[in-house]
Amino acid sequence: MVDGRQVCPSTANGASDCAAAATILCRAKGYQQGRSLGVDATEKCSAKVLIPGRTREPGDCRTENFVTRAWCQ
C-alpha cells in the first residue's frame, strides 16, 4: 500500500479515470499496477470567481479527483 497524490485523468466522456491514476501512483513507487483505496476531490476555479460583485457561472469551477492511497502489486 502506498500513499501519495495523483490526479485522476479525464476520459473521453468527461469522467475521472482513477484506476489509471492508481497505476501511475504505483509505478512512481516502483510497482507495476495498482487499485485505488482512497480518493479525494477538490474544486478548482478560475480567477474570475474572485472578481467582486460577479455572479458565479456554471463553467467557472470544476471538480478534480485525486488518488491518495493505492494498493500496489
Topology at a glance:
Blueprint (H helix, E strand, L loop, with lengths): L1 E6 L10 H11 L5 E12 L15 E12 L1
Antiparallel strand pairs: 1-3, 2-3
Share of residues in helices: 10-25%
Sheet of most strands: 3 strands, antiparallel
Rg, alpha carbons: 15 Å
Q: Number of helical runs?
A: 1
Q: Please indicate the count of domains.
A: 1
The beta-strand count equals 3
Query: What oligomeric state do these chains adopt?
Result: single chain
Q: What percentage of amino acids are in beta strands? A: 35-45%
Q: Biggest sheet: strands side by side, in what order?
A: 1-3-2
Name the overall outline: elongated
Uncertain ranges: none
Structure description:
This protein has 73 residues and is of the alpha+beta class. Helices cover 15% and strands 41% of the residues. The protein has one helix at residues 18-28; strands at residues 2-7, 34-45, 61-72. It has a three-stranded antiparallel sheet with strand order 1-3-2. The chain starts with a strand and ends with a strand.
Compact summary:
With 73 residues, the protein is of the alpha+beta class. The protein contains 1 helix and 3 strands; from the N terminus they run βαββ.
